[in-house]
Fold each of these.
Amino acid sequence: MMDFFQGIPVALQPINLFYVLAGVVLGNIVGVLPGIGAIAAISILLPVTFYLEPTTAVIMLAGVYYGAEYGGSIASILLNLPGTASNAITTLDGYPMAKRGDAGLALLTAQLSSLAGGTFGILCMVLLSPLIVRFSLSFGPAEYFATLFLGLVAGSVAVGGAPIRGVAMVLFGMLLGTIGLDLNSGVARFDMGTPNLLDGLSIVAVAMGLFGIPEVISNLGDRNDGRHAITITAREMFTAFKRLKRIIPSILRGASVGSLMGPLPGAGPTIASFLAYSLERSVGGKKHEFGTGRINGIAAPEAANNAAAQTAFIPTMTLGIPGTPTMAIILGALMIHGIAPGPQLVSGHPELFWGLVASFWIGNIILVVLNVPLIGVWARLISVPRRFFFPVIIALICAGVFGVANSTFDIWAVLVMGVFGTVLRFFGFSPAPLLVGFVLGPMIEEHLRRALMISGGEFAYLFSSPTAIVLHSITLLMVISPIVGAIWKRRRRLAQSKTTREMDQRP
Amino acid sequence: MFNKRGFLKMVVGAMTLATATPALAQDSFPSKPVRLIVPYSPGGGTDVTARIVADGMSKYLSQPVVVENRPGASGTVGTLLAKEADADGYNILFGIQATLALNPSLFTSATYDSKEDFTGVALLSESPYVITVPGASDITDYESFADAANDNMTMANGGSAALLAARLLARQADLNFTNIPYPGSGDAISDILAGRVNAMISSPVSVLPHVESGALRPILVTSSESYPALADTPTADSLGFDGFNVVGWYSVVAPAGVPQDRIDILNAAFNETLADEAVRQKLIDVGVTPSSRGLDAAATSAFIASEVDLWSKEIADAGIEAK
């Protein structure tokens, strides 16, 4: 805790303040733009950081990373286009709110939940770092399998409409996820003979294809263009603040899920937001309102992905384990300066680690200060006739997808996924569970097979730790509770109708 | 702002410049930025190394060396791209053991012949692999390692090169452990730190901080010479496996057909860069051992050819078929 205070002066140095501002502003912008994510921006900035002090360099790159989580929600809510994959879930309730005229409230909720989630994550870093390191080290293949299984089940039953459709979409997503080289045997699966598919489909291409392109296509025929402008007055904002009181529990639940998921390598903000949303839907009450524009459905995932974006730095810095590709680039920036992330980083370079943590909070504050006054401006975007947006959106998506791996093949992949996504939308299937399956499918396969290899084929190994058992129990509960609930309701109805019939039969 | 005359002036000026450039190019290579294709994602160990070298090179070539990341398919995508690039010396490839010596024997999609399609420019580094065990493990030296290896040991590896090194050692030392593949050594670290796998084979750079903190214990390195940062760790050679020398290496190659004088200019620039003390220190800091052999272009080609032969034979002997 005391260490944290020695980081504040570092973060407040003018040069560091300047670069945290530059980082978060850039992150916010790339976050808003669909397709272009933090990873593209950070790769472009990497060479610039050679000429900066390591602390300053990491402060800026980190700012881009968590700044994108803020910006990403804006496009999700206003345009139904997730700015980044971890904001995809925010479209489920954010966009319906914007459609019925509550864009301002939705944006305010997203921004404040982001701030609260980010702050929660930073507090976890300051107070619980050693515990979190121990927690993430305790996660082996068995625990991962349990988490991912929970994620897949939650993705099918708790995200979007009918469970059977959800299951179908998750399974299809898992199938898409199998494309590419198999890690264990090196066999290429469904590669259609092109080396471009050996690493699988790009997640950016899938996310943008499924969410972005169908949104554009299905609105093309929409002649009723000029959606009435929304003006947000100070008084409305004030009443909005009052309504926000009831999202505090959602934020706390979301931020807790996010803080736990963030440090797990491979999991990160995307899984955190999915899990937080399904948890919220299960325990937050008024289940049927989710997906129709419920404010809690924005608060929980936005708090979760921002908390995760902060705690993800713990294993990156203290163990040298980058959880996501973006984190790997930030590690690279440190290594180029001759700083090896690892157990000695915090003791060897306290000014760097705590300076970075302190800068996180400054960056979070800057983001809210920037975005909240702009909510009125953002919300007005919705009244711009969409025909002006569409070419820009398509161009941005193509540029962003290309930027990830400099590959034109990925642009074609977006097109194919876009056509597929449009068909799905036409038949009323939600793309969110498909994305869940696509992200989690390859991971669950990897960890299941690794668990079985380590244990020599013992399935019992999957249930060998308390964490795994608790997680599997939650999954089981999630599956049976709706069934039990349905039976219980039917019994009661039967009993009721029986009594009414008996009453009828009375003379 | 612009009148007609001004515009014409600009056009004429631009045309003069355009005709002047080729004349210059005949005299001096390089006359424009050189593109260094790195077949891996930005920020990874390979990319960081490439950027340090590219940065240093620019000084000696008087032209920027621009890193272009073309990741995909374990490096195959970028390597194929370089094969197709113009053989004018302005397109060079960061070629590493996995992409040049292993992939053509492992993947049918790697449709290049490293000996035919590329010509060596310079050898940048050679580093061994190191086998580590958790600090809390009972294994303290090679002998206890060998005993444990034949008793259900699991060995993590973070890629095909490390896996093949492990297999080679297992065959020569008659050990029997189960190889557990991970996408990268970073992914394996938490499992080895927590002791869920018994041992790991990786490049030294990914484990050095943990060796220093005592969380991991090095058992042996796979090169015949000892590794400076792990000077106390025995080499496989010193343990009695004569001539056992498996190293990962980084090189720069060009598509076949680049004029020899250009290759020589590039080679000289790389070797000067590697002799630069500041660059050496930066490379050592990121865990790369800069090659001090100063190989010329022909010797680099010969080295790569010998590695291609060695590994295609080892892969065939191990009964692995290209997929």
Note: Chain B touches chain A through 57 residues (CB under 8 Å).
Amino acid sequence: MIDAFASWMLQFGALSWLGTTPATILAMSLVAVAIFIFVALNALVLVYVERKVSAFMQVRLGPMRVGPMGTLQTVADALKLLLKEDIIPRFADPILFRVGPWIILLASFVAFAAVPFSPGWVPADMSIGLFYVVSISSVVVIGIVMSGWASNNKWSLYGAMRSAAQIVSYEIPVGLSLLAAVAVVGTLNLQEIIAAQAGVGNLFHWIPIPFPNWYIFHSPFLFLAGCIYLIAATAEVNRTPFDIPESESELVAGFMTEYSGIRWALFFLSEYANAAVVALLTAIVFLGGWQSPFADLAGARFGMISLTVLALIWTIFVKYKVKRLSIYPIGTILALTVIAWLFPAFAIWLATPGLVWIAIKGGVVIFLLMWFRWTFPRLRVDQLMYLSWKVLLPIALINLAGVAVWMWLTGAISLVG
Amino acid sequence: MGYFKNIGDSITTLITGMKVTMGYFVRAKEHVTLQYPDEKWPNPERNIGVGELDTYNVIRSKLHVDIDDCIGCKKCERACPVNCITIDTLKTDKGEDIGTTKLGTQKRLLVTRFTIDMTECMYCDLCTFPCPEECIYMTPDYRFERGDNKEVQVTNVERWRDRNNLIYEYSTVPKTEVDRRLQIIADAEAVKAAALEKARVAAEASATATPKPAENREITPGSGEEQAHE
């Protein structure tokens, strides 16, 4: 993508005096700036969405005053954070205290370099993309320990130590669950992983229901791997059921206790960037990335059928529950069924650009993370370790073996080959 | 097998919890509480069980005085079983017109203080019946909100009791006016006292010397009062 961008820039008369190398560097900088803007806007939007989601789940309305439906609330909050006094405790380590937030932000920001947003749209199309994202995300722990130690505060240090233990523990289930998908596709390149999930096939290879060829529908083992990845990744980015590093009720704010103003805003930015990376990686590895599920005729038929099923579920579970059964859902179902079987090409237009699809899938995963966060109580430290080492790790290991067996059964690999 | 039962229990309970939150999420608008400053419940109406429906069909929630109609007779203060009403009055000057009530009665007393302590009030409604001008009554306002931050002139004990700002001041006479009238009265008192003192000194002097009744008549208390009425 960088090279293509650079050569595109060199086509213009005003820019053609640039050599290839400066043009490449310029393209890299522009892409980095674009990703940084994406990260910042992502945090801005996700904070608002998270506040609204949490409010609705807790029977509140959330921010309602600044702007229509409170949409400008996070802008106001960000401005407030920028204007706040930057306090550094007298006995804090002056250098590490300043460096820590930047390392955390950098680690979560650099992870976007390997994320494919669309066909051909990946800042660095490297052959070890998945490995790169997973490993660069764990650099965050260095920044967390750094800021926790430098704060010279017992809560900060506790938070940092817990975070280190947690991230190191949950790296293993994350790696093993991603390895299950990698075992199926046979590459670490994220673009190739996505390309392998194109089209529509049978659910779990044998059940004759048309489902997209996403890895979460590839086999029961990969479905389980997807669940394990989501749980472990939630823990790895310190979101709420696993947020013991910053548990408000025990440690004041964990490793960010002593931070204020812009440095604290950096923590916030990296928190949501991390959530976005996890959501995007889930979408890429298990949900088909930028692949549209409705890209061809079979996909369109699948889309119509799923709409029919959704309408049926809506009719049965929602309308019956409120005892307001009307004729409209039944009519909708009939119409959708007719469309699905007679005019599947009607829905071809749903094969929209990859950017939209990866945004939808990532958004669904982020909503799932928010749903977890505002439903589940926080785990205790020992429960956290129990979950990682005694539940997720054995299941992920057995799961990996199960994937191999499944591939042998479906003929993807053979023992004699 | 406790291990697998534990995992199964975890999954089922987590799904139960997620169902609950999703149930609230999809129809949050049906469950949220009243957005209080923007929307308010209407004042509830109900029969309190005394008298006719149409006359007593409100909750007794807050005592209110139409201070323009108050003549300062203090009947409500005496009727109150818990002494939550405090009234101070000042006499007006002769010939001064401070208005009439809605029933046509000429007001004679200036009500310089009319405080109702709603922390003490027990909503018995006994104060409303003695009122000759029908100006003190119970209102159905249950919210007890105050838009103003008016400083209420109360004693320290009352201030301590009034942590919730529930002492209501109804008098509209400004403090400067009250001070002016009190000053005039104090001046008149001082003149009267000076006259009495002079008379006493003169009497003591007359006890030793010959009494002079003509001088005593010149200095009368009445002249002091006339000065005060100016």
Note: Chain B has three domains: 1-32, 62-173, 176-228.
